[in-house]
Amino acid sequence: MRDEIINRFTSYVRIDTQSNEDNEICPSTPGQLTLARQLVQELQEIGMEDVSMDDNGYVMATLPGNTVKDVPTIGFLAHLDTATDFSGANVQPQIVENYSGGDIPLNEAGNIVLSPRDFPELHKYKGHTLITTDGNTLLGADDKAGIAEIMTAMAHLIQHPEIKHGKIRVAFTPDEEIGRGPERFDVAAFGAEFAYTVDGGPLGELEFESFNAAMAKITCKGVNVHPGTAKGKMINSAKIAMEFHGQLPAGEAPEHTEGYEGFYHLSSIKGDVEETRMQYLIRDFDRQQFEGRKARMESIAAELRAKYGHDKLVLDIRDQYYNMREKIEPNMDIVNVAAEVMRNLGIEPVMTPIRGGTDGSQLSYMGLPTPNLFTGGENYHGRFEYISVDNMVKATEVIIGIIRRFEERAQS
After folding, report:
1. Which helix (H) or strand (E) holds 148?
2. Is 328 helix (H, G, I), strand (E, B) or coil?
3. Does 310 appear as a known binding residue?
4. Strands 74-79 and 194-198
5. CB 17 within 8 A of CB 81
6. Cβ contact 58:75 at 8 Å
7. What proportions of the chain, in percent to the nearest 5, are helix, strand and coil?
8. What angle in degrees, to the nearest 10, is found between the helix axes of 30-46 and 2-13?
9. Annotated catalytic sites, by residue?
10. In 10 A of CB 340, how many CB atoms?
11. CA-based, 20 to 30 A from 235: which of 149, 267, 333, 396?
């Protein structure tokens, strides 16, 4: 299982599947289709049935049940794309066997080092086999690790028919990182009663709470005049943008928040005197506070329009997903079974809220309750991303364990 996971994972991460929110087609980048086609071939080769890929790059497949018991159909999902935060092109995974502790040189030419001084959680991985980047790209464990783990679990079940299980459905989806993963996902065609995304981080993560999320795009318009004759004429759009940002609570930003605390995140700003564009992520676990955050931005925008002119500021806020806890709590048995399986494998479940979202956030509101399982990775979305192969094996064992447990509990 270990070698199979390494081979699958390192194959997947070499395909550039970074999504692009500026591209409205689905999937937003051609590399996602490249990986999807490869997965279709692999699913067929290992013996999965009903293997399909639609025009939007959604891959689905079935492992038929091999038990006479009445077992619910369970789904497992992972996403094809990698994050937009850092380059995902020409990923060169490096394997560190039996990590002995201390610094891991990623790129000697660039003097890029993965060090426990900067990332003390590395101390937990002494003796593990790690897969890292070469310092120039992200790794793509989010979520190609999840894909590798699901694929390996399915192959294992097919190779071991003595393990009894109900019908299993798997799906690999595009554009999760830009919030569009479930937009064209056919829940009815998937046909699962509930599902799990395999899209979490370190060992033991088991998540059923996510942010309520929205994106805000702001365009500030100015009037550019030669600065020598600008008095009473110039309107500096960059200063309008600064004024807008200055009215948001300084402490309610990602770098100052944790746990259940929400935030406003200025994710990009570009501009000059004539025009400035800003983009914000709005996040909160509490639905009422989430709505209050959006209302605050609307209020600031109205105030600045009154001050500078109605055409000088455009605010567009769009909801992205909601806290999946509301939909999963009535179905907590699926979380409890996952926790039981982890404990039986010697893994202590870590039930913390996702300070982000997964496809499960939207799928749960589409009628498919979908909590999130760990993959084993750390430092997602950057050059210092790495993953423990040992914990990838454990993630695969959790998938298999969940499938077995539901069969064991079912009535004949």
Report:
1. helix 141-159
2. helix
3. no
4. parallel
5. yes
6. no
7. 35, 25, 40
8. 150
9. 81, 176
10. 14
11. 267
* CA–CA separation, 132 and 103 (whole Å): 12
Q: 3-state SS string over 372-383? A: EECCCEECCCCC
Q: Read off the DSSP letter of residue 69.
A: S
Tell me which residue of 164, 167, 166 sits closest to 190, measured CA to CA.
167
Q: Which residues contact 387 (CB under 8 A, 6 or more apart)?
A: 9, 130, 131, 139, 141, 145, 375, 376, 377, 378
295-324 confidence digits (pLDDT tens):
999 999 999 999 999 999 999 999 988 999
The mean pLDDT of 53-67, rounded to a whole number, is: 97
Selection from 99, 96, 17 nearest residue 59 by Cα: 17
Which residue's structure tokens are 């110039």? 234
Dihedral-angle region of residue 33 (phi above 0 means left; psi in -120 to 50 means alpha; beta otherwise): alpha
E-strand spans in 344-402?
372-373, 377-378, 386-388
Please calculate the CA angle 153-395-174 and round it to the nearest 5 degrees: 75
Sheet with 313-321: strands ordered across: 263-271, 275-284, 212-221, 313-321
Task: List the structure tokens of 154.
Answer: 């399915």
Q: How far apart are the first and last CA of the chain?
A: 31
> For residue 37, is pLDDT > 80?
yes
Residue of 172, 176, 196, 211 whose CA lies nearest to 83: 176
| Pairing verdict, β 104-107 and 206-207 | unpaired
Helix or strand or coil: residue 12?
Answer: helix
Nearest Cα to Cα of residue 309 among 246, 248, 216, 235:
235
Output the pTM of the full model: 0.89
pLDDT tens profile 283-298: 999 999 999 999 999 9
Q: What is the identity of the amino acid at 278?
A: M
* Residue at token pair 């086999």: 129
3-state secondary structure of 267: strand
Q: Is 142 annotated as a binding residue?
A: yes
Sheet with 386-388, strands from edge to edge, namely 94-96, 130-132, 386-388, 377-378
What are the backbone angles phi and psi of residue 387, rounded to the nearest 5°? -145, 145
- Cα angle for residues 198, 200, 205 (degrees, 5° grid): 110
Token look-up 């994710």 returns 267
User: Which has the closest alpha carbon to 181: 165, 206, 164, 199?
Assistant: 199
Length of the chain, in residues: 412
User: Would you state the structure tokens that stand for residue 25, as one six-digit string?
Assistant: 């087609």
Which amino acid is it at 285? Answer: F
Residue 165 marked in a binding site: no
